[in-house]
Amino acid sequence: MKQLLLSIALRLRTSKRYKRSKDFIRDVLTNANNPYKKYVDITIIFLIITSVFILIYEVKNPVPEWMDMYDIYFVSFVFSIEYVLRLWIHNDLSEYITEEYHDAQFLQRDFEPWNALKEGITEKLKYMATPAAIVDLLAIFPAYRPLRVLRIFVLFRVFKLLRYTKSINQFVEVLSNKRFELLTLLFLLAFIVITAGIAIYVLEERLNPNIESLFDAVYWSLVTIATVGYGDISPVTPEGRTISMLIIISGIAMISFATSVIVSAFSERLIEMKENRIVEQINKSKSFLIVCGYGQMAKMFFRQNQSDVDNYIILDKDIERVEAARKDGYNAIHEDASRFETLSKFNVEHSRITILCLTASDVENIYITLNAKSISRKIQVIARVNDIDIISKFEYAGADHLLMPNRVVNTMVHTAITQPTMYKAIHAILTGKSVARIDEIHVHEFHHVVGKTIKELDFSGNKLLFIGIQREGSFIFNPSPSEEINPYDILLVMGRQISLDYFSAKQMGAA
Prior knowledge:
Layout: H1 2-14, H2 16-30, H3 37-57, H4 65-90, H5 93-107, H6 113-128, H7 131-138, H8 156-159, H9 161-164, H10 166-177, H11 179-204, H12 214-225, H13 238-283, E1 287-292, H14 296-305, E2 312-316, H15 319-327, E3 332-334, H16 340-343, E4 352-357, H17 362-375, E5 380-384, H18 391-397, E6 401-403, H19 405-418, H20 420-430, E7 436-442, H21 454-457, E8 464-471, E9 474-477, E10 490-496, H22 497-507
Parallel strand pairs: 1-2, 1-4, 2-3, 4-5, 5-6
Antiparallel strand pairs: 7-10, 8-9, 8-10
Helix pairs in contact: 1-5, 2-4, 3-4, 5-6, 10-13, 11-12, 11-13, 19-20
């Protein structure tokens, strides 16, 4: 039996198909960024709503057979499969067994899988005892038709909406964050209700025909403190009416206090909820830009590229700069981009991400770069460098491109003084004030230009000035006419926009 368990566990642990299947199911059921999860959520919500509708409909109407079969078999079957899958992905029993086997091999002792198996099953039982798992299990009970009373458990399917509707989850989370204040209020409410109920019971039990038991007195006390006032029970003695006035005032005070607690909780969370919604929307894009820091460089970038930048988000830990970015009409959230938890919110697996580090601190930009590259090497990082003496640190951190504004400014100032005409021309081209512009042409392996020489491309005939080639990290300035174009080269050319568009359409098509 031990060898059979070990054989099954080792086979499952080494099976790539098993691992892929389990990871896929876990991702679909638990990862909000998974593209298939929203369809699963919509399906479950639809099944919950229709099953509750059938429960209401059958109170006074005969249910058609097809509707009954749909509720008994299909809905309950889907919920059963969901329950089993969630139980399956919670942990992996084969992992416990294989770890026990390796430990036994290392310590040269007998292999005893039973304790490991017990530990794994205990973890699953703990999950089954969680409120969410209990609701999932109770939602399956209505399928057992011999006990019609179990039909009431259909209502537990409504509680499954807590798992699939984020708005309800957020509401519950806000209340959970204020549970100390709300529990304190609840205990005070219970104390006043019970004390007032006992008092009115002692004072009016023989004088008031509507109060026959302590339960009637407590019921009256709760209705009165809630300011509902049904009128079915009312005090008849001066003492009883005095108690009524006191608990009415207490009820108004507690309702006001509870309202202020809940409103303040939502006010604190509202901004965070909006920011989370922005992150969710940006994660749906195939590619997007994260701008870290909203300073002068970020403002200049957006002013010059506002029409070209669609999917972006600004991160800044200074709330004043965040408010300034929002006032300027940009998507900005109050987060510290140098923290791993901040960057890990973004969808790296399904999106192409570029991070623009524009904070005024070199240390912070290095931390952002390190965190980004630790999350995924596929993230492209463009970092601002203020101190040129620490360029090597940015390179060690993994920055793909470096921006050195101080060096550029010094160079431009020197050029403006010594060669003013050149400065005006370069400034006009870079700022877009000239009719000509410098552009990059990215060559892919299927483009027509691959294998052709620079002479064959005839840049001058297309009214373009060819500057050079970026190839494998190095730049070849003004290469010879016989130089061939390779896949993944970047051609740097200058000319009018109409010439650039014409050349791209004519020469850069797929072979």
